[in-house]
Amino acid sequence: MNTWTDVRTALGLKQIINASGTMTSLGASRASNASIEAATGILPFFVSIDDLQRCASKYIAGATGAEAGFVSACAAAGLTLGVAGAMTGCDPGAIGRLPKTNGLRSEVLIQAGHLVDYGAPIEQTLRVSGADVRIIGSATEVSEHNLEAALSENTAAAIYVVSHHCVQRGQIPLIDFIRLSHAKKVPVIVDAASEYDLRGFIACGADLVVYSAHKFLGGLTAGLVAGRGEFVRACYFNQMGIGRAMKVGKEGIVGALAALDAWKRRDHEGIRRTEDQRVKTWMEMIDRPGVHLQPSPDPTGNPITRLRVIVDATAVGCAAWDIARELMKCEPAIAVRTDGVDLGFFELDPCNLSDDEAVLTGDRILETIDAARMGRIKETDYGTWHRQRIDAQYMWPN
Ligand SMILES: *Cc1c(COP(=O)(O)O)cnc(C)c1O
What tens digit of pLDDT does each residue of 27-84 get? Predict the structure, then answer.
């Protein structure tokens, strides 16, 4: 057998059923057939990357309503390049000097409740460019005055994050954030890495919007940068500077374009119905005392409803995190959504599953709950669970 045709088995990697959504740490999403074919089609050939990115600009402009765009290595790279471009403009001297920022506007503003971590802290992703990050307001309370007071001659850009990771209250609405920033001639960069809405942020007046190509779009690993023409050009030129270490290849570029094309033709309503049906199936299946089920609409308004499984640890005999841990020990392993697990629940995301996998997930959850009720699952406190996860991570490569 050729090792590289069934690479997961050949390398002895465990099979994972992904009921957690688009997690970068699990390989993000199932790449769409269109993206796989596009990558296969271009990999054996040479192309002018600038020409390919010219095509990308047209595609991205068409899909987002922006003036221009390009494909970056990932959304995080798009954010770093966005901040870099805001500082340097198209000046080759400044691009070559980064991350030294002498002589440039070098401050970027971000609301405290937007300081997310997607596997790395956004604050550092912004700072990689050399920019100084200035945090405005407090985690749950940011006022327009905080923003107005921070905007200055030295502000290169203001960053707005749209994400379920953000504090969902007490932040300045995007429309007001843009109005106040533009009043001081400061461009706004929106991190919309895992948002479905490809046009809304540009339509709101954002100067630059960054998406992940490998999350809901189902492309290969890449990011999409869309925005005002001159701004996009400045970001693009920074690939000849600090952006070199975040290089996207021809396969990532065509993968992203094919994903955008497939997205246009996708039966969004049909897929929504299928996903809702999976949640309904789980609601009918998972019927046990001490377990409460609640449909959980996406907090940023993406058209996806997850299932929240709320575990009464006293009645069940173990906590939500213990069930999540046991599910990862199954064969195949089942990954559920664990942000919020310390609040007593985990969530099931229907978007990266087949119907069979959804049913298997429901079965395994029932078996795990029943085992817990019979006292066969070790109950841990949250601190122990959390520490064990981090310890396991830091053991790599052992
Ligand atoms: C996933 C994510 C990122 C990073 O995206 P990559 O394409 O994996 O670099 C950035 N911001 C937010 C809000 C995210 O959810």
Answer: 888 899 999 999 999 999 999 999 999 999 999 999 999 999 999 999 999 999 999 9
Q: Ligand 1: which atom is nearest the Cα of residue 212?
A: 7
Encode pLDDT of 357-391 as tens digits: 999 999 999 999 999 999 999 899 999 999 999 99
Q: What is the pTM of this model?
A: 0.96
Q: Which atom of ligand 1 is nearest to the CA of 221?
A: 7
CA of 25 to the centre of ligand 1 (A): 11
| DSSP string for 331-397 | SSEEEEB-TTGGGTEEEE--TT--HHHHHHHHHHHHHHHHHHHTT-S----HHHHHHHHHHHHHTTT
From 117, 161, 163, give the residue whose CB has the most ligand 1 atoms within 8 Å, as the site to mutate.
163
24 lines ligand 1 (CB under 6 A): yes
